[in-house]
Amino acid sequence: MVKGRAIVVDERDNVATALTGLKKDAVVEAGIGQSSYKIKLRSDITFGHKFALKRIPKGEHVIKYGEVIGMASENIEAGDHVHVQNTESLRGRGDIKNMNACSE
Amino acid sequence: MEIAGYNRANGVGIRNYVAVMVTVGCSGDAAERIAQLNPKAKLLVHTQGCTQTPPDVALVEKVLVNLASNPNVNSVLLVSLGCESVSVDRIADKISALKEVGVVEVQEKGLQHAVARGSEITKRMCEEAEKVRRTAVDFSEVKVAIKCGASDATSGIVSNPVAGKAADLIVGGGGTVIFGETTEVIGAEHILAKRCASEGVARRLYNAIGEMEKRVIAMGVDMRGGQPTEGNIKGGITTIEEKSLGAICKTGSSKLVDVVDYGDVPSKKGLVFMDGPGREIEALTGFAAAGAQLILFTTGLGAPQGFPIVPVVKISGNPETCSRLKEHIDVDLSAVFYGEEGLDAAAQRLFKEVADVASSKRTKAEICGYEKFFNIYTKGPVI
Fold this sequence. Notes:
The complex is a heterodimer of chains A (104) and B (383).
Chain A: E1 6-7, E2 15-18, E3 27-32, E4 35-40, E5 50-52, E6 61-64, E7 67-72, E8 81-82, E9 87-88
Antiparallel strand pairs in A: 1-2, 2-5, 3-4, 5-8, 6-7, 7-9
Chain B: E1 2-8, E2 11-13, E3 17-22, H1 28-37, E4 42-44, H2 54-69, E5 73-80, H3 88-96, E6 100-105, H4 106-109, H5 111-130, E7 135-138, E8 143-149, H6 153-172, E9 176-179, H7 189-194, H8 199-218, H9 230-234, H10 240-247, E10 256-260, E11 271-274, H11 280-289, E12 294-299, E13 312-316, H12 319-324, E14 331-332, H13 334-337, H14 343-358, H15 364-368
Parallel strand pairs in B: 3-4, 3-5, 5-6, 8-9, 8-12, 9-11, 10-11, 12-13, 13-14
Antiparallel strand pairs in B: 1-2, 1-7
Helix pairs in contact in B: 1-5, 2-3, 2-11, 6-10, 6-14
């Protein structure tokens, strides 16, 4: 199921996951279905970590598995490492006022 | 399909254990010495059972009864202090409806006496257990719990999807699959809700997740670092939503037929959700109390632990972990990671491993004896 140096899990995703350690400036091809990307990395990406497939402006959703995994806390450019430094969770946030818990 | 198991009053066991279990943390020393004198017995020492709020006392009693009732256990020695909040008499009484139970109390005549008396009972129970034989039983008698731990990016891409397909095979074969880890459904609940067998089941699922999330929010902090853990983050998981979306892959595609409380025995067959925490030492206990005879455990970074009375099968799709931790990984899914084996073929391989372990094959955690530590999940304070 896994071929190449990075995997895109769902067509709606705006991030890919590195399947091996990747170096800054490397050009990585990844895709799924109709979506294919050729991305120049803006930093080293550790095995298992994510990089952006397109620009994700601050406040926009980060998508993996075709679902929202969080929100960009700053502008993210294609090829950027997407992780805790630029992506925040939208759930279980007791540090944010008026945060609601899960409901139907 | 048939497996070789042990017929008990309340189901089929795949192991034939004598359990030496404390009712309260304070009797741990006595229980440990009894187990040392009887190496075939399984030691169960936890830290709960006293000076807790009444709902937690009742919860601990229920979990102890249900752990002892697990069909992998042939008989039980309860090691009590004497003055604990839980009632050893009530616990023993409930277990005795299903199997032989003995009781020793440290406060009766002290440690030496409790150890001598407890050891004598345990030795006799071990001799009795030797007489019980495996017989052919239907696979549908097997309840398998599925858990993920020490997850990394490979968990959601390789090991959890394979476990999910194996879960479908188990449910398809008439068996029961239990999963839980309420925290690790946060952000993925809408997907599971669509698979619920009824609106009532979906409502209970949302309630369980809502209650867990409210307790986290009440702490006034961002839970990141606690969930996902620092290890998960190092492994590439950024948020709880990402962790959850990868975690629920292990549930496969069956309908969710029921939602049960922590440590409760499901009354329905099929895929069941148990409300409870993600942390191993408490989560595995909940599954064992639910009567799961076997636990499938996917891991990215390499969680090694088993459980005293339930075989735990460790599965990893991280090639580096599989090669570094051969001592702990039962099912190596590196071939799936490299695209050399399909998810369906790997799921068949995992399903066969379930049948083999059910019929007596020992897991890595059983072989290296990495299975002592467990605890019981409680919700209130120690008072």
